[in-house]
Structures are given as C-alpha cells and as structure tokens.
Write a structure and sequence with these properties.
Elements (H helix, E strand, L loop, with lengths): L1 E6 L1 E2 L5 H13 L6 E3 L14 H4 L6 H13 L2 E10 L14 E8 L5 E6 L10 H4 L7 E5 L2 E5 L8 H9 L4 E5 L7 H15 L2 E5 L2 E4 L2 E2 L5 E3 L5 E4 L5 E6 L3 H9 L17
Parallel strand pairs: 1-3, 2-11, 3-4, 8-9, 9-10
Antiparallel strand pairs: 1-15, 4-5, 5-6, 7-8, 10-13, 11-12, 13-14
Family: Belongs to the carbon-nitrogen hydrolase superfamily. NIT1/NIT2 family.
Keywords: Hydrolase
InterPro entries: C-N_Hydrolase, C-N_Hydrolase_sf, UPF0012_CS
Length: 274
C-alpha cells in the first residue's frame, strides 16, 4: 500500500472555500497512491471554536463535494480528515448548541463515494471548547480499504489505548489518526503515535496540521510508524506531503514473530476499595 499524508497548513487569511479547493488540488496530485490522509478539522481549524457552528456541514456537504471528485480523479481511497458535522434529524436541524455537532471523519472511495464515517469518541477541552460544543461518537469504526483494514481514530483519541485495543479486536492492521495537535505538546504526539503502533503491532498513519488555528501553533510532525515502532517518515512543521510504501503483511508477520497480543489478560477481577 502506498500512503500519502497531507500535512495541511491552516492559516486565518485563507478562506474555508479557498482551502477546500487548494486541498482538492493536492489530493489530485497524489495519483499513484492507494490511500491519502488529511488532518483533523482542516477546513476550519481544530481550535477555531467560534467558527464551528457557522462552518458545520452534513457529511455530504461542501467538503465532500470538493473532495469526492478529487479522490475519483486521483484513483485513491481518501481519508478526508474530519469536518464539523451538523447531524441530520431533529437535533441537527439547525437549532444550535451542544448535541448538534460532531467531529466526523470521512472515508471516500476511489469511485468518489462515501464509504465510512467516524465520529470522534474522545472530545478535547475538558470543560470548554470541543468538549462542550460537540457530542461524542460511540462506535468503534474500521473499514476495508487499499488492501488493509483501517482503524479510525482522531487526535485526542490517541491518549486512550483501550480504543486502539478495540480496533485491533475489530481486525485493524493500519491505524489512521488525523489530528490538529498543538505544538506545545508535540512530544506527546510523537510518543503516543509510536506507543499505539508498538503495543498493537500495527501501522500508524498520524496526520497532523501545520500553521496556526485561532492563535494556537500546530505541531506538524505527521508520522508513519511501522508495527515494530520504527518511524518510517516524519514531517517537519510546515505544510508537506509524506509518501510511504507499507507492507501490510508485515503486521501479521510481526504478530506471529513476537506474539505479545496473545498474552493479553482480560476480565481481571476489580480490586476491593481501600
């Protein structure tokens, strides 16, 4: 599998529509790849909280409309990063407020069809920002694409290893994690991306943004990590494209050669309260 990670710069002087058009052109330039990955909330910016409600869209809205033809033209599976989704139905009919919005990833086929969505389970911000403006997803999500089983997660999800165990149990051998991770915690980003790959003996495609979201400098340093924890490619802090050829069979080979996952002990008794 040839995977291309597009580390998109999100800057305030570029409109959302202009960025969509520019990124669609970058996707078209990836012909020859099998899978292209974009970062989290790149249309609006992961920290541009005040714009979330105004820029919210349906899963088949303007971001999909811009990128589906690009995926088709390039002949690639496209993990389109994530959008601010306004949910369909009564709670998402435009009333506003928490419960209407989700941080939702889109996976588009080489034919330009929407084949999977993933609503981010762990929302960042504690008592502010995304955690108060968006609802949480509730489903572990995988997808067959480009000869692999992709396990989908987003940014802050990286801090919760139980989600990745669940993805492994669901058959995932390649994790795809778009992010809008702040530069001040870059060391956590690179450490956790490698840790999730090592402990689950899976490939990690961790695609971050560059630039500045609402005054928050972004980490960059998108990474491709192999099932043994080796970093195959790592970006810098500017917009760039990382392209890496993955041997998906290396996942099963690693798990057979060093079968640590077989030693998992689940259902251990809960210790008594002190």
């Amino acid at each position: 599998m040839r995977a291309s990670l597009l580390q998109i710069a999100v800057e305030p002087d570029e409109s959302v529509d202009s960025r969509r058009a520019r990124v669609a052109g970058l996707v078209r330039a990836q012909r020859g790849a099998d899978l292209v990955v974009l970062p989290e909330l790149w249309p609006v910016g992961a920290f541009a909280y005040e714009s979330f409600a105004d820029e919210a869209e349906s899963v088949d809205g303007p971001t999909f409309a811009a990128l589906a033809p690009a995926a088709r033209d390039a002949g690639v599976f496209l993990h389109a990063g994530s959008i601010v989704e306004r949910a369909a139905g009564p709670s998402g009919a435009g009333a506003g407020g928490a419960g209407d919005l989700y941080n939702t990833s889109l996976l588009i086929s080489p034919e330009g069809t929407l084949v999977r969505t993933y609503r981010k389970i762990h929302r960042f911000g504690f008592d502010r920002g995304e955690a108060t403006l968006m609802s949480a997803g509730s489903e572990i999500t995988t997808a067959d694409a480009a000869g692999a089983v992709l396990g989908l997660a987003t940014c802050y999800d990286l801090r919760f290893p139980e989600l990745f165990r669940g993805l492994v149990d669901a058959g995932a051998d390649v994790f795809v994690v778009p992010a809008g991770w702040p530069a001040r915690r870059r060391a956590h980003w690179t450490l956790l991306a490698r840790a999730r790959a090592v402990e689950n003996q899976s490939y990690m495609l961790a695609c971050a943004t560059a630039g500045t979201h609402a005054g928050v400098e972004q980490s960059g340093h998108s990474m491709v990590v192999d099932p043994w924890g080796e970093v195959l490619a790592e970006g810098g802090t500017d917009e760039e494209v990382l392209t890496v050829d993955l041997d998906v069979d290396a996942v099963s080979a690693t798990r057979e050669r060093f079968p640590a996952l077989k030693d998992r002990r689940l259902g251990l008794p809960t210790p008594p309260a002190p």
